[in-house]
Design a protein that fits this description.
- The structure holds two protein chains of two kinds.
- By secondary structure, chain A is an all-beta fold.
- In chain A, a hairpin with a 2-residue loop joins strand 6 and strand 7.
- The N and C termini of chain A lie far apart (38 Å).
- Helix content of chain B is 0%, strand content 52%.
- Chain B has no helices and eleven strands.
- In chain B, the strands form two sheets. In chain B, strands 2, 4, 5, 6, 9, 10 and 11 form a seven-stranded mixed beta sheet that branches. In chain B, strands 1-3-8-7 form a four-stranded antiparallel beta sheet, with no helix packed on it.
- The termini of chain B are far apart.
- The chains are: A mainly beta, B mainly beta.
- At the A-B interface, strand 4, strand 5, strand 9 and strand 10 of A face strand 4, strand 5 and strand 10 of B.
């Protein structure tokens, strides 16, 4: 039972355009959400997070939107750059609980 | 700071062999965890620790043991390797369970 789903395994976007990566969750107890970025042969690195008390969080070119009623979050990257090409994982946890549940990842390719 | 380090980077085992994957962090983080990444499965939590002397099971703990005798080290032991344990293993740490986790570079394990 996949509690965090990233239904698009891959996404290709032109440099300078917006990249939108989507994530859905089923567990209503999740109230903290994170995005991680992973390059080949490296560990994931933290990108941005959002608490359920917010519906948007912004950090430079990266914005995460949360729609609690739809149990959906999205990561927007504007403008997309070739260095953004990586696998992006969505993750969620309930409250202060230790365990993170990860999605299956979306491979983003930013083309010139 | 070296951050989170993992050794070895690559390992090939025969079915039934045992081995220990090493993980160390120099950031004085209390929380440490082990994940495995498999194609189409995202990252799944194996075991985690909220501090020295305290460990708990994650989503897929069977076939693995952990201990946490110091704050810095969190080794993962495979008791009797099976082909189903072929995977990439990541260790992660954070100040506490509520903060984002820092990941090591991973260990690629193949069991034949």
């Amino acid at each position: 039972d996949q509690q965090v789903k990233q239904n698009s395994p891959s996404l290709s976007v032109q440099e300078g355009r917006i990249s939108i990566l989507n994530c859905d969750y089923t567990n209503s107890m999740f109230d903290y959400f994170l995005w991680y970025k992973k390059y080949p042969a490296e560990g994931p690195t933290f990108l941005i997070s959002i608490s359920s008390i917010k519906d948007k969080n912004e950090d430079g070119r990266f914005t995460v939107f949360l729609n609690k009623s739809a149990k959906h979050l999205s990561l927007h990257i504007v403008p997309s750059q070739p260095g953004d090409s990586a696998v992006y994982f969505c993750a969620a946890r309930p409250g202060t609980a230790s365990k993170l549940t990860f999605g299956t990842g979306t491979r983003l390719q930013v083309t010139l | 700071n070296a951050g989170v380090t993992q050794t070895p980077k690559f390992q090939v085992l025969k079915t039934g062999q045992s081995m220990t994957l090493q993980c160390a962090q120099d950031m004085n983080h209390e929380y440490m965890s082990w994940y495995r990444q498999d194609p189409g499965m995202g990252l799944r939590l194996i075991h985690y620790s909220v501090g020295a002397g305290i460990t708990d099971q994650g989503e897929v703990p069977n076939g693995y043991n952990v201990s946490r005798s110091t704050t810095e080290d969190f080794p993962l032991r495979l008791l009797s390797a099976a082909p189903s344990q072929t995977s990439v293993y990541f260790c992660a740490s954070s100040y506490s369970s509520v903060f984002e986790q820092y990941f090591g570079p991973g260990t690629r394990l193949t069991v034949t």
